[in-house]
Amino acid sequence: MSNDLFKQITDSLVDGEPDKTVELTRLALEAGEEPLSIINEGLVPGMDIVGERFQTGEYFLPHLIVAASGMKQAMALLEPELSAREQAVESLGTVVIGTVKGDIHEIGKTLVGTMLSAHGFQVHDLGVDVATEEFVAKVKETGAAVLGLSALLTTTMTFQREVIEALVEAGIRHRVKVMVGGAPVSQEWSDTIGADGFAEDAVGAVELAKSLVA
Ligand code: B12
């Protein structure tokens, strides 16, 4: 039953029907499905298919925009549920997170931020297209233990390296652990640029952040 509902959620994103995505997400929640399962088994596969079709030239930018709108609206329903389910007692530390300069992809970054705060981190989300200096200033201001840098484009992932270099220049690199993520990012890239860790998804990001502050 739930597999069928998840498949319908996936299809609604692929078919560009955001209202249907929202309605099905609501139905899944009412049916008692876990928000994270709805995301990982319904919504994310849909976004992946849309991305693949865009890459092969079958879909164009408007398809991405409509699918993103469906996912964002569904996430607006799911985020409060995610937070309500994981009520951590003590704060695990402060995290600053954002999508790097030149990159406006926000869905994955926001999901990672939501999951981190649901698990007890105090999260400062700087949004998208964040200037390198802004990351450095926020880390200084908050004394954050972890900095999360999201990049979805091969052309913007280089700014993850730029932020790390700027932290070194500001003399605060040793005070903050840097984790990187986003579709084109890998463990290899993380090692190359001297980040402290990479995670493939939001669940992995929580595990990583916990291990970095341990
Ligand atoms: C939706 C989308 C858009 C939307 C974004 C809307 C929004 N409000 O966010 C819009 C339409 C704006 C868009 C624009 C563009 N896009 Co786009 N987009 C996508 C798409 C289809 C889905 C991304 C998404 O939201 N996925 C769902 C979330 C949940 O997954 P996620 O972002 O990967 O995040 C997860 C992990 O990566 C990880 N993670 C993410 N961040 C972080 C951070 C940390 C610290 C950690 C630890 C983990 C982590 O955890 C997240 C949760 O599980 C992808 C295809 C894809 N499959 O990735 C293309 C894709 C990323 N886009 C692409 C392109 C080319 C573009 C454009 C350049 C298109 C154009 N010609 O204009 C522009 C760029 C605009 C810009 N300057 O940023 C390409 C990138 C190719 C590349 N390798 O460089 C992709 C891969 C599509 C493709 N296959 O060609 N896009």
In short:
59% of the residues lie in helices and 11% in strands. It has 214 residues and is α/β, with parallel strands linked by helices. The chain has a 5-stranded parallel sheet, sandwiched between helices.
Instruction: Give a count of the beta strands, DSSP E runs of length 2 or more.
Output: 5
Order of helices and strands: HHHHEHEHEHEHEH
Strand order of the largest sheet: 2-1-3-4-5
Question: What amount of the residues lies in strands?
Answer: 5-15%
Count of discrete alpha- or pi-helical segments spanning 4 or more residues:
9
Radius of gyration: 17 Å
Bound molecules: cobalamin
Helix content: 55-70%
Largest sheet: 5 strands, parallel
- In the predicted model, the low-confidence regions spanning at least 5 consecutive residues are none
Mean pLDDT: 93
Beginning-to-end CA distance, first to last residue: 40 Å
Structure overview:
The protein has helices spanning 2-14, 18-30, 35-55, 61-85, 107-118, 132-142, 158-169, 187-193, 202-213; strands at residues 93-99, 121-125, 146-150, 177-181, 197-198. It has 214 residues and is α/β, with parallel strands linked by helices. Helix 1 (2-14) runs antiparallel to helix 2 (18-30), helix 4 packs parallel to helix 5 and helix 5 crosses helix 9. Helix content is 59%, strand content 11%. The chain contains nine helices and five strands; from the N terminus they run H-H-H-H-E-H-E-H-E-H-E-H-E-H. Strand 3, helix 7 (158-169) and strand 4 form a beta-alpha-beta unit. The protein starts with a helix and ends with a helix. The chain has a five-stranded parallel β-sheet, with helices on both faces. It binds cobalamin.
